[in-house]
Amino acid sequence: MAAAKHWTQRLQSFDRRWLFLAMGLAITLPLIFPINTPIKPSPMVQSAYYTVDALPDGDPADSSKGATVFISLDVDPASTPELEPYFRAVLLQLKAKNVKLVMATTWYSAPPLIERWIREMVEQPLAPAGTPGYDGPPDRAYKKNVDYVWLGFREGKQAVISAFGSDLRGTFDGRAADGTPLDQIPMMSGKKQLKDFDLMILVSAGFPGAKEYVQLVQSRYDLKMVAACTAVSTTDLTPYFQAGQLLGLVGGLAASAEYETMVGKKGLGTQAADVLNIGHLVVILAIIFGNIIFFAGRAHRRRQGL
Fold first, then answer.
1. CA dihedral in degrees (284, 286, 292, 294; nearest 10)?
2. How confident is the prediction along the chain (306 residues), in pLDDT tens digits per residue?
3. Residues 281, 16: Cα–Cα separation, whole Å
4. DSSP 187
5. What is the model's pTM?
6. Cis ω on the peptide bond leading into residue 186 (within 30° of 0)?
7. Which end of the chain is more exposed for a tag (fewer CB within 10 A), N or C?
8. Is the Cα torsion angle 187, 192, 196, 201 positive or negative in sign?
9. Do 254 and 276 contact (CB within 8 A), yes or no?
């Protein structure tokens, strides 16, 4: 009669589809039933938030008051899950302060995505008065060429970024994306190059993006910049934050959740942080489980003289 298999031998034939099921549940359940795991903003995220918070408040009735911010949205659909939560959060922060926005992109794939963001987030309030779970200042619908200007796309990568620094109007032929002459837009009065803006916000999925802005125009024109990037780019941009060339850095989905926490309105980033935390927990437990089986099995074979 054959000897019974040791428990480690039986577990070696464990059906891995159970792990796939566990990972699937770890991804879907937190989206359906939010866990709201604790989130502590990092120093880089805090610095990004307070830099924006320090901008002077504007007045919807007077375009000459308040700050004007230049936002470079260098994104594509693949980077949306990581960068859209940050853009929503910082946009709410900016609109609640009535900050005027000038937006552009150096990515040819970005305009359709950005135009959707403008319709859904800029021209619609993100958190009107009475929004459940939000205690901050309410925002409002922004008007095109009154509260915001969409300049559109320009090809040229590093060359066009350098051109933004010296002659923003000339780079876009003196017109907004809808053809309106910039000279006819009151909020663009005096805005001829990047140094004329109170702050630059760089939402960057890769090349060209935040790194090129820092290298080509930040030091040259002494510009104030904060950046948001995908998680994989965080290590490349962190030295610029440490050197003071970036005043804040929001790297990846987890950092977007931290920014949402500081703004005071939870969104996709916070939900995704739950998914990341539970998903990583499942992976860690699977690694521990596998190592227990391996070492216990090896100890059993040694005792058996195998």
1. -120
2. 456 777 777 777 777 788 888 888 887 888 777 777 778 999 999 999 999 999 999 988 777 789 999 999 999 999 998 999 999 999 999 999 999 999 999 999 999 999 999 999 999 999 998 898 899 999 999 999 999 999 999 999 999 999 999 999 999 999 999 999 999 999 999 999 999 999 999 999 999 999 999 999 998 999 999 999 999 999 999 999 999 999 999 999 989 999 999 999 988 777 777 777 788 788 888 888 888 888 888 887 788 776
3. 17
4. G
5. 0.85
6. no
7. N
8. positive
9. yes
Q: State how beta strands 148-153 and 249-251 pair.
A: unpaired
How far, in whole angstroms, is CA 210 from its chain's centroid? 12
3-class state of residue 249 by DSSP: strand
Which tokens hold the place of 85?
């939560």
Q: To which residue do tokens 């918070």 refer?
A: 53
Phi, then psi, of 275 in degrees rounded to 5: -60, -45
What is the rounded distance in angstroms from the CA atom of residue 283 to the CA atom of residue 225?
37
Asked whether the CA dihedral 275, 114, 212, 88 is positive or negative, the reply is: negative
Sheet arrangement for strand 100-105: 148-153, 100-105, 68-74, 199-204, 225-229, 249-251
